[in-house]
Amino acid sequence: MARAAVHRRLTWQPATVAQVNDETATARTLLLEVPGWPGHVAGQHVDVRLTAEDGYSTQRSYSIASAPEVDRLELTVQRVPDGEVSPYLCDIARPGDQVEVRGPVGGYFTWQPESVEPVLLVAGGSGIAPLMSMVRGRAGANSRVPFRLVYSSRTPEDVIYARELSRRVRDDRGLDVAFAYTRSAPPGWPRPPGRLDAPLLTEVGWPADFAPAVFVCGPTGFVESTANLLVSQGHEAQRIKTERFGPTGG
Fold it and tell me: Residue ranges of the FAD-binding FR-type domain (predicted)?
């Protein structure tokens, strides 16, 4: 059974890097051990703080990618050029290093395994991270709720969790995944490269009359355009939950 996040006053906690996995040329997953971690709900995020020897500190927020029932906290970070936090996490952090985390944060953009309506997940780039927590949480809870994931990525090489997604689709009849490539597509791909559009959402998403729970995560422009497309297709705006990110200094 997935653990529910405990409501408490949020404080900074030490976290030790237990493992690092390179996902793409610009994205890395870090597994963190956080003593006393209270648990989280799929879709939540944490604040990560780095402190230099001279006392200077900086922090950024990152979505939690791990399933709620997993003890180690899993964060997938996309490197931001000239950033302060993401370059360290993507290029320098090694097992045994310590950072500080605060969370879990957020209660709106979350999915609970007790939900029964079909789910449509739409990800742009590294916006896949909180949606992957939902995919993993669904599997960990043995939920039979059907999931459909539409993932927009620049190229096949930029797809985060590519192998895991392929395995999960192969082993789970309740999970479907479709890709939209914006820069280059694999040889023989049925669609030319381009932005996620209404025809693809109609083809691979849930019909509006199914009243699915919809979660959209990615860059601000992507999220806004996708939400508008879904509303134009008849999806109720209140059933579309969005999480967006933009230039923050990384």
Answer: 10-111
- Structurally, the chain folds into a number of domains equal to 2
**Domain CATH code at residue 206:** 3.40.50.80
Distance, CA of 174 to CA of 76 (rounded, Å): 25
The reply to whether 44 and 125 lie within a common domain is no
Report pLDDT digits (tens) over 40-71: 999 999 999 999 989 999 999 999 999 999 98
Strands, E assignment, 125-212: 147-153, 175-181
Pair of tokens at residue 178: 């479709």
Which residues have C-beta within 8 Å of that of residue 117, sequence separation ≥ 6? Answer: 145, 210, 211, 212, 213
Contact 208, 235 (CB under 8 A): yes
Q: Is residue 145 a contact partner of residue 81, using CB atoms and an 8 Å limit?
A: no
pLDDT in tens, 163-192: 999 999 999 889 999 999 999 999 999 999
The model carries a pTM of 0.93
Residues of the domain holding 152: 119-245
